[in-house]
Amino acid sequence: MEHDTPEKKTGGEDGEAHRALIGRSMGRWRLLVGRRVLARLAIDNVAPGLEISHLDVLDAVRRAEPEGEVTVGTIADFMRIDPSRASRIVSDMVARGALRREASQADARRIIVVMTDLGKKLMREVQAVKRGVIETILADWPADDVAAFAVLFDKFVAGMERIHQNRENAGHGDKPATGA
């Protein structure tokens, strides 16, 4: 029985050229992600008064809700920021009417964060902007390429998440951001 070596799995010399192209593309992507291009487009189109951190909090609540009640600590963990910073952003979003605080049903001493109808509407509109950008980019791609890219990009991101989680589990994770 013949086993696949890393070279066979990634295509030898052609694979090396492909890995190099992926590396260069990741560098370009990092700059766009670092500048938060999609979030800025969404804010400009949907809610000009918001900051990117506001969208991040709404997204953290949206992602955390299926797992149970969401606290400021949960949001801080999702965003990888200091809990006091998360609390300030949540307070701002409560004042804007996008979030509300309420007593936990499981433990009335605990305060949870819940997205309001306005918060849900903002998230739907932000998602619509993101979908619009994706649709524009993929408009002239063949359907088979779009399907393959969707699966492969998800697989790639999942691999990055595994590497990050393994690094955190080994005690090499990033420290929470405390910046203003």
UniProtKB/TrEMBL annotation:
- Which keywords appear in this protein's UniProt record, sorted alphabetically? DNA-binding
Q: Which residues form the HTH marR-type domain?
A: 19-158
Is DNA-binding there in the keyword field?
yes
Supply one GO molecular-function term: DNA-binding transcription factor activity
Which Pfam families has this protein been placed in? MarR_2 (PF12802)
Q: InterPro entries this protein is in? A: HTH_MarR-typ (IPR000835), MarR/SlyA-like (IPR039422), WH-like_DNA-bd_sf (IPR036388), WH_DNA-bd_sf (IPR036390)
Is the keyword NAD assigned to this protein?
no
* One BP term from GO: response to stress
Instruction: Note the SMART domains from the entry.
Output: HTH_MARR
> PANTHER family attached here?
MARR-FAMILY TRANSCRIPTIONAL REGULATOR, TRANSCRIPTIONAL REGULATOR, MARR FAMILY
User: What is the protein name for this chain?
Assistant: DNA-binding MarR family transcriptional regulator
